[in-house]
Automatic annotation (TrEMBL):
Domain of life of the source: Eukaryota
Protein name (record): Uncharacterized protein
UniProt organism field: Phytophthora pseudosyringae
């Protein structure tokens, strides 16, 4: 039986959303402008990342209005030492979790994965990103992105390869963030998982209140996304 989110959970997301809005305003007023945020509707060049499904809309992707807000919310959760964050698309009320803006249609979670990767890599220093793609909970692709701009695509990757890369980063005094397109076969920390709705996975993370449900695409946004 579906449950409505508790007041505690709603308070949590309201607080995170307010923090995200404050961070967005701070970025907008920053004269340094190293990362120039624009109004919704612009496009970004798709980074070379491991994806579960090949992106078929060309070299660029459409940036949805909600991406900046969700980026700040996820980053805030990581900054407060949340070990695992799941970004998915089912309205939050179905599993007792929360949604900032529940609407109808698809969500483009893999595109948000690309957006999150790009801005996190630009904004957060001294951190390596290990990006992975999982198909049916099996590791399919993995790339290690160092904080100096170097990257290494792992050939026939295994979990041992990922752990080894993580240890190498730590020996150099670096932090590590794991980004997963698709459901991983195990938890690594800290980790952000971008996935289509999966009941069993959502049950496993429910107790941590760590699932975010993105707003759905309307028809206009779907058309704009395909034309980008």
């Amino acid at each position: 039986m579906s449950q409505m989110p508790s007041r505690k959970k709603q308070k949590t997301v309201d607080t995170l959303a307010m923090a995200a809005e404050g961070a967005t305003e701070s970025l907008a007023s920053d004269d340094g402008g190293q990362i120039a945020r624009q109004d919704a509707g612009f496009t970004e060049e798709l980074p070379s990342l491991p994806f579960v499904h090949k992106y078929k809309n060309g070299k660029y992707y459409y940036v949805r209005e909600c991406y900046e807000e969700y980026y700040q919310v996820v980053k805030k959760m990581l900054d407060t030492e949340e070990d695992f964050v799941t970004v998915t698309g089912t309205p939050g009320e179905l599993h007792g979790c929360y949604s900032i803006r529940p609407r109808g249609g698809g969500i483009g979670k893999s595109v948000f994965y690309a957006y999150f990767f790009q801005y996190f890599l630009k904004e957060v220093k001294n951190t390596w990103i290990i990006a992975t793609a999982y198909r049916e909970c099996q590791l399919n692709e993995a790339t290690v992105f160092e904080d100096d701009g170097k990257s290494e695509e792992l050939v026939f990757p295994s979990t041992k390869d990922i752990v080894r890369a993580s240890k190498r980063a730590h020996t150099q005094g670096k932090n590590v963030l794991f980004l997963c397109d698709g459901l991983p076969d195990r938890f690594l920390s800290p980790m952000v998982v971008f996935t289509s709705p999966n009941v069993e996975w959502l049950k496993s993370v429910r107790k941590d209140n760590s699932a975010l449900y993105m707003p759905l695409w309307c028809m206009k946004m779907q058309l704009l996304g395909r034309l980008s």
